[in-house]
Amino acid sequence: MFDETHILRLLFVINSTKGKPELQSKAFQCTQNLVSTHQHLIVRIIDSPSADNLIASIGDCQAILHDAINERKYTVAISCAKLLYTISHIALASRDRNAMDIDVPIISRLHQTVNEVIDALSTGINNLIKSTRFGSTPKLLCGTYNAKLKELLKMKARYCTLLNEWDFEASFKEAYQTLLLANDEVAAILLPYLTFLLQQCRQVPSWLAESVTDKLKEGMNKSSMFINLVKLLLHTSSTEELTAKVISLLHVYGSWDDTNEMFTSNCWNIYLISLEAGRRGWFALMQAIVRSLFKKVQSEESAYWLRALGSLAYAETQVPNNIGTVTANIVDSVTKHYVMTLEALKALNGLGKETSVQLYFVEMRMEMNVIIQLALSTLNMDTNDDTALIRQSRWMQECADRFRNLAIRFNLSEQPVEVDDKEILHVLATYNTCILACEYAARSFAASNNLFFCVNPTLIPILMDDRVDDDSTSNLRESNLMKICRKFVKTVAEWEKVSGLESNQRHEQRSQHMKTALEAILRTPFILPKAFFKCSGRMPIPKLKHTC
Q: Rg (Cα) of the chain, in Å, rounded?
């Protein structure tokens, strides 16, 4: 039977193993797999007298890591770092949150280990970047070194998340300065790392937008650097002023032709930027780019694809702009552009291109927005008498029914194609929760003494969640939409607990709560997974004129 003694013995053996780096690396990999499979054994060791032996093994493993970094044996260093991360992650995740670190010596030791490993990984990362920057690495080894650099950055990012007090903003600033000095290949590797750090920051650094726009002006001649900086900028919030600045810079980068209103160079790179803009919610930028690129397409399928993207971007820019002025004409105008998007995607289907996922997301977004607009119109009804209140309640009940039907149609079990993309599943789950939250609020608002309904099980974890919705304790990685929905559901759950208010005051309060939440949902940019914009395999690749 495999138990704690086997784990400790195995750690002792691999730390004593000397030989070829490949063999040593494989030994660490096998041990990591065993530790991952038997996590409960690590937890037992922590709470037993054998904890000292584990601490000793961790120290030996650390020494091997440092030696491997200094000797540039990066394969061994990466495997060793992964093993240490697995042990640290299991131990720190299992600790009693109410206990002080001093009460559990191994936890305090692990925090020290994590900090020391981060320092060691930083040394390895800096060495690799310097080697590529100053040309001291043979060309044949550059590809290998870049792969090692990518792995070291991944490991450093993971280790940083183990420390609650880690300063992600400082790490982001340091990595950003490195990006500015790196060559194109290293910059491309650093971008995902920077993106991860930015997502962990509690707020976007105030200096980022201005710094990136200044660097973009200097980097017009380095396409890779220009594209990477724009992609990084798109992780910030879109504003009219910032969008105008980016468009102005793109005009220079793409040699804008004022007469024909189109780009004449770097069109493909600008097209890639438009896709990233759509993925990050910069739909005004996406629309401006796609509209100009439409004049450069050479194939029918490319025209349909860009038309679909352009119509979707236009619809998304109009939704938040028209909040508070909901009229039938405005709703019809926005819906018309969603329909145009669907028609273009269906035309692509007719040309043999698979667009089921795109159709699925656009249909969901269109129908959800229409129902939310209907609910807002219902909330704005005059309710001066009992008859009007009954009518409003009946209409809100109809909105709730439509939300429920939408949630049933667009749940994870009703996907149009086999999907194993975690991001797609996450986005679908987020919108499903959002729709169910709207249904819950609509039914609660319309509730009367003779009406009973069950809360959807999907919302129960939110209702049971005791977390305080405080921006100071959140990070950018958490979806803004989920934060809105969590707050919305909890607010609705508190309605029945409110006392001391007259009936009309309660009605007005609930109405205002719903308006605030529904408008916030409409203002949240459409969340689209990367696969929506994928232009390889079954997805169309726009063919642009060679002059571009």
A: 27
Task: Identify which of 133, 171, 173 has the alpha carbon closest to the alpha carbon of residue 149.
Answer: 133
- Which residues, including other chains, have CB under 8 Å from residue 463's CB and lie 6 or more apart? 455, 489, 490, 493
Q: For 322-385, where are the alpha helices, taking DSSP H only? A: 328-350, 356-379
Is-contact 236 207, C-beta < 8 A? no
Per-residue tokens: 483: 């934060």
Average pLDDT of adjacent 10-residue blocks, the chain of 548 residues: 78 77 86 88 84 88 92 92 93 65 70 94 92 57 78 95 91 91 84 88 86 85 84 88 94 92 90 93 95 86 92 93 66 88 92 87 94 93 85 93 92 61 86 94 76 73 67 54 91 79 82 94 92 60 52
Look up tokens 């290949």; give the residue: 185
CA–CA dist 397, 387 (Å, integer)? 15
Instruction: For residue 33, give the H/E element and its range.
Output: helix 21-37
Residue corresponding to tokens 């609509």: 442
Taking the C-alpha atoms of residue 281 and residue 113, their distance in angstroms, rounded to an integer, is 39
- Return all residues near 457 (Cβ < 8 A) that are at least 6 apart: none
d(Cα 544, Cα 115) in Å, to the nearest integer? 50
Q: Which of 401, 404, 364, 397 is nearest to 378 (CA)?
A: 397
Phi, psi of 97 (to 5 degrees): -65, -25
What the block records as the tokens of 261 is 């209103």
Q: How far apart are CA 305 and CA 336, in angstroms?
A: 17
What's the maximum distance between 2 C-alpha atoms anywhere in the chain? 87
Q: Where are the alpha helices (DSSP H) in 237-327?
A: 240-253, 267-279, 283-293, 300-321
**Residue 211, number of CB atoms within 10 A of its CB:** 17
- Residue 297's φ and ψ, nearest 5 degrees, are -70, 150
Structure tokens at 262: 């189109």
What is the rounded CA–CA span in Å between residue 284 and residue 290?
A: 10
End-to-end CA distance of the chain: 66
SS3 257: strand
CA atoms within 13 A on the CB side of 530: 5
Contact at 8 Å (CB) between 276 and 226? no
Q: Which two tokens stand for residue 127?
A: 């060495």
Closest CA to 477 of 76, 207, 225, 198: 198
Residues near 140 by Cβ (< 8 Å), separated by ≥ 6? none
Please give the sequence-ordered ranges of beta strands (E in DSSP) within 75-144, or none if there are none: none
- In this structure, what DSSP letter does residue 544 have? B
* Cα 213 to Cα 209: distance, rounded to the nearest angstrom: 6
CA dist 189 → 145, 147, 276 (Å): 11, 9, 17
